[in-house]
Amino acid sequence: MNILAIYPWTHISSSALLINGKLVAASAEERFSRVKWTTSFPTKSANWCLNYSGIKWEDLDRIVVPWNPGLNINSASSRWDSNISWRGEMLSNIPSNIMKALNSIPPKSMEISFGKNKISYLNHHECHAASAIYSSNFNKCDYLTIDGHGEVETCVLGSFDGKKINKRLSVSYPHSVGLLYGTFTDFLGFKPDNDEWKTMALASYSTKKNSFDEKMVKLYKLTNNGFELDLSYFDYYLFDKQKNFYNHKLISLFGEPRKKDSLITQRHYQIAGALQRAFTKIVFHLIKITKKNGNKSNNIVIAGGAAMNCVFNGLLENKKTYKNNFVPPWPDDLGVSIGAAYLENSKLGKKNIRSDNVFLGPEFSNKNISKLLKNYNLNFSRPVNLSKYVAKKLSEGYLIGWFQNKMEFTHRALGNRSILADPRKLNMQQKVNSAVKYRESFRPFAPAALDKEVHKIFNVEKNYKIQFMEKAVFVKKNWRKKIPAVVHVDGTARLQTVSEKFNKKFYELISEFYKITGVPVILNTSFNLNGEPIVMTPSDAIRTFYTCGLDILVLQDFVIEKNKK
Q1: Is the pLDDT of residue 169 over 60?
Q2: Which helix (H) or strand (E) holds 84?
Q3: Which CATH superfamily is domain 366-561 in?
Q4: Please, which residues bridge with residue 458 across strands?
Q5: The CATH number of domain 177-327 is 3.30.420.40
Q6: How far apart are CA 83 and CA 93, in angstroms?
Q7: Does the reported pTM lie above 0.85?
Q8: Which of the four, 245, 452, 474, 535, has the lowest number of CB atoms within 10 Å?
Q9: What is the reported pLDDT for 77?
Q10: Same fold, 2-68+108-127+334-347 and 177-327
Q11: Is 511 helix (H, G, I), strand (E, B) or coil?
Q12: Cβ-proximal residues to 30 (8 Å cutoff; 6+ apart), any chain
């Protein structure tokens, strides 16, 4: 059974390929097009998935889309479907009018076929849920999905009984936790539906309640089935009718919004902090409702764009509402293509092979890289012990581009498309920012640490895994001055635990750095310049290397150094 999932035209386009229940390839379209956050049809990523696996389009049993347009066209205004401008619009016009004539509940999913080709359109939030369920190790679990909005829903909670995903309750648009966060991202001068992590980073500068907490409470109320927003403060649901997600009533409550690129003041930190606390309160309330309506498994998976909030995710262990929790490496719309493939396979009665493998993208051999370096006429070396050589350079303060094996299918580099630095130096955060990333100084960098040592450095239990940088945890006080470049202002760090099984090469590098420095941690950030996607090919890496302040580039087993003749 060959199932290709594609997801175009929303926050980020992607493709994923499932063969006989096994996830074999996945990539975001932006890595191929080199346009960050592109929503273009994912032709290039889909073609790569197929070519990599030796499959042609005509070999596919299903093409699936993690969005059900039946829920949208069923209620389309007659202005849009009473006439057509070209006959191709019959694809949507006829179903729309038939659904209105039937006057029935919109279908939970849709399917169209032409010849041997079949396309299935699946519910967006159900795909979010599947993306987490089938990448977890839970046989049974409850689930909670939260985002800006799907076709109709903004939040869904339910359970998985080992065979079927069972929806229990939902919150409908325009009441949305994700768009509440997006509204204040917009208010604070950032781009909503894109820069929410900047807002989250600001919030860490205001961890105590302030006057804006009392104002934030006016915007929402908790209910037995979820929450409601006071929509009189918001304009996000008016789409093209208004410029911003907020309106004058919200401005009268919180004051003037920050203009893009203007100075960030204490007031902005306080607003972000109040927002994060409100978000935390609402989501824990939703988790409590999920548990009440769940299957008593004591396991929960969380997905949707809101599950990118690593500060909140880090609190899950402390609350202990559930014994076990899981956030996938692709919780936002990047991952719904994976969820759609798993979900369709399950609906067809086939078994899914569970996997949390994130290394699903293109890779390049030493042979290919050697040929490329010679064509570019670049000087390079091939150290006998690569990990030891690079670890020593890291300990000496060099900034390193690290390019290895298969590309990650996440927004975050997890050791295969990474920029690495020594976390022990106080100025290293600023150095990486000014030399490479060119991003806001208040945004922290992440530590990658040996899994067997993390409990000594961070407030986590022994053998606890945070493989995907999905959670922020507190750094122990006696270590904060030892690794200052990866400690945020509030004493937390967005940790990645690295095991030999998860990423052997990366593990060996950190181990060698540990031998040299006594510190089993390195600074790890994504290999890209600000405003660009993470590098995919060796050519992408070389171009980035020579247009920024990196000192050394490692391509598989080859090393290029700017200061070495």
Answers
A1: yes
A2: none
A3: Carbamoyltransferase, C-terminal domain (3.90.870.20)
A4: 475
A5: yes
A6: 8
A7: yes
A8: 452
A9: 64
A10: yes
A11: helix
A12: 12, 13, 36, 37, 38, 533
